[in-house]
Amino acid sequence: MPQRDSLRPLGRFLLLTFGLSWSAWFLGQSLGLPQTLQTLAVTLGPALAAWWTPVNGRRVTPDWRWRPDASLTLVLALPLTTAATALGFGGALPWSAWPSLLSLYLMQLATVALWEELGWRHWLQRYLQGRYPLALAIGATALCWLCWHGPKLWLLGRDGAVLVVLILASAVLLGLLWRRCDGALWPVVLLHGALNAPLNWVERYGGLALEALVAGWWRVALGYAGLALLAALIWRRRQGERRAGGVSRGPTAP
Questions:
Q1: Is 77 exposed, middle or buried (0-12, 13-18, 19+ CB in 10 A)?
Q2: Who has greater pLDDT, 181 or 94?
Q3: What is the pLDDT of residue 252?
Q4: Average pLDDT of 131-146?
Q5: H/E/C letters for each residue in the chain?
């Protein structure tokens, strides 16, 4: 069992994350703020919580280095997630849609993915992974991330069931990628944005709701098999590095 003192940073992080984000959401709703501003205010919660929650007297520093893993994710992630989403809705994304999709992708990176990953993977999964098995660390992070989306799920009602599945599946993909990339931040930020952007495009421009994915779940699985290929390529490159230069140290626990 972990010592009580070791749970204090965890409790502080979760309290700050939920308190800041949910307060921002309710305030934004009551004031009728623009959606982009509301989103940014909410997603800053995990990042600020990570900054304000030192472990053992020091802040956890992100790994900002751009690695080959990030380049591979940048090239492959968005086309693969777009293909998976298009298949799930039973159609194909026309070439004319790509400028607006890329614009949404950049917006997702700037207003959502970066700030959430600074909290959820960079702080929470790192903290848990240093104290528990990997599966438990990823699973606990996924459940906390799901609960953090509570206000949005509440608004969606029954339609939120599809979003629950998407959040949990995304959390597993992001958690495994973060671990495989030894705690590097950019690959998970890029994948997070790539997971969000196609769904955001379909909802905004395609006139379809998330529940339409239910009927095409098997087609989504085909597209996400491509994401497994991305993970396999990264795994293979990492294995080559280990053979050439020794075992990777992995993410350092705070």
A1: buried
A2: 181
A3: 62
A4: 95
A5: CCCHHHHHHHHHHHHHHHHHHHHHHHHHHHHCCCHHHHHHHHHHHHHHHHHCCCECCECCCCECCCCHHHHHHHHHHHHHHHHHHHHHCCCCCCHHHHHHHHHHHHHHHHHHHHHHHHHHHHHHHHHHHCCCCHHHHHHHHHHHHHHHCHHHHHHHHHHHHHHHHHHHHHHHHHHHHHHHCCCEHHHHHHHHHHHHHHHHHHHHHHCCCHHHHHHHHHHHHHHHHHHHHHHHHHHHHHHHHHHHHCCCCCCCCC
